[in-house]
Amino acid sequence: HYTDPDQAAEFVERTGCDSLAVAIGNQHGVYTSEPKLNFDVVKRVSEAVSVPLVLHGASGISDADIKQAISLGISKINIHTELCQAAMAAVQENHNQPFLHVEREVRKAVKARALEKIKLFGSDGKAE
């Protein structure tokens, strides 16, 4: 089920929300197969509403699809699962080490993944 542009416009108008999460073939958590995003929905909803669009469940979506979604109006991208995966990989790689070492490696791994995504999203160098 995809977000309906007309319903989205009515929802934004009636609620005065600050942003809108859209359903375009995305899902929360780990994908069991390659997601197939409906970019026409992104374009149509972006044209129908005046608020930033949010993409939930972006962990596992290809870099090319992320870039295309951004070009069509996605402004906020949620990647919690991917950050958790980076953290868990660091825990597994360091499970025999003292806790403070594990904690430091987890922080480094999550930071590295976040920086990769910040660059992919085109947000690097934009802090004021």
Task: Tell me about this structure.
The protein has 128 residues and is mainly alpha-helical. The protein has 2 domains: 1-78, TIM Barrel; 80-128, no CATH class. Helices cover 52% and strands 7% of the residues. The protein contains 5 helices and 3 strands, in the order αβαβαβαα. Strands 1-2-3 form a 3-stranded parallel beta sheet. Strand 1 (20-21), helix 2 and strand 2 (53-55) form a beta-alpha-beta unit. Helix 1 packs parallel to helix 2 (39-48) and helix 4 (80-93) packs antiparallel against helix 5. The model has no long low-confidence stretch (mean pLDDT 96). Pfam families: F_bP_aldolase (PF01116). One of its GO terms (biological process) is carbohydrate metabolic process. InterPro entries: Aldolase_TIM, Class_II_FBP_aldolase, FBA_II.
How do you describe this structure in short?
This protein is mostly helical and 128 residues long. Helices cover 52% and strands 7% of the residues.
